[in-house]
Specification:
Elements lengths: L4 H5 L8 H12 L12 H10 L4 H4 L10 H17 L9 H4 L7 H10 L23 H16 L3 H24 L19 H20 L8 H9 L4
Helix pairs in contact: 2-3, 2-9, 3-8, 3-9, 5-8, 8-9, 9-10, 10-11
Length: 242
């Protein structure tokens, strides 16, 4: 039920949660287009989609706006996944009281300051006395499976990981479009379109271009062609067929 931070920052009511995001990604993996589909281990892709943000259940949704470096973000999420799948706490993990965030008094900036903190010491809290899937739980094999899937996604070296990373970006674009439509042209979320530039697979670029065309038409019908992200859309669309 933890809301996705980007939507919260824009004041979207009842925003998509991290769990919503992972579930919809998992459904999208089942719709992989041909000829890409025949090259993929689809069940593996679905598993990667379902676990890729699991660590955020403890560390929260850390975004670029939070001024936390990528290595530090990875460290926190890796420690959270280690705890969830093995039950082993990092030696510097905090108690519930120590980790409880200070009251937010200045909106997004307050959250960013809180998250940035001291990168050497500011990490996730581990409120349970043991992990859910660690030694003695009878679920050790499941823990290893989930951690292996998370590690594969993070390494982004297999075709399945490339695909799920692209699905991650596509799902964000689709959700962005839904919120813009809901706002009937009063909500411009185009800053999120920067993610499309990181899409790797040609089959997924085709899907992304279709979303971009739909968005262009949506804003054109409302007489607003200078919306955020239009330069990104034009650049990506111009690459079609090259």
């Amino acid at each position: 039920t933890t809301p996705r931070e980007g939507w919260r920052r824009f004041g979207i009511p009842n925003p998509e949660s991290i769990a919503d995001h992972m579930y919809r990604m998992s459904i999208l993996t089942l719709l992989a287009p041909e000829p890409l589909r025949s090259k993929l281990d689809i069940p593996r892709c679905t598993l990667l989609a379902l676990v890729h943000d699991m660590g955020e259940s403890l560390v929260g949704d850390i975004t670029p706006m939070d001024r936390v470096s990528k290595p530090e973000k990875h460290r926190r999420e890796a420690e959270a996944m280690g705890f969830l799948t093995t039950g082993i706490r990092p030696h510097h993990s905090k108690s519930v009281e120590e980790a409880r965030p200070a009251p937010e008094v200045d909106g997004v900036e307050g959250r960013s300051s809180q998250l940035a903190g001291s990168e050497a010491n500011n990490g996730p809290s581990f409120p349970l006395s043991h992990g859910l899937l660690g030694t003695g739980t009878g679920c050790e094999g499941a823990g290893e499976m989930l951690r292996s899937a998370w590690d594969e996604y993070e390494a982004d070296e297999t075709l399945e990981a490339h695909f799920v990373h692209d699905v991650d970006k596509l799902e964000l674009m689709l959700q962005m479009m839904e919120y813009e439509r809901r706002g009937n042209g009063e909500v411009d979320l185009g800053e999120f379109l920067r993610v499309v530039q990181g899409v790797k697979l040609e089959e997924m670029k085709v899907w992304c271009r279709e979303v971009l065309r739909e968005r262009e038409q949506f804003w054109k019908e409302r007489g607003k062609e200078g919306v955020t992200g239009r330069d990104v859309a034009e650049r990506v669309l111009s690459e079609e067929g090259r």
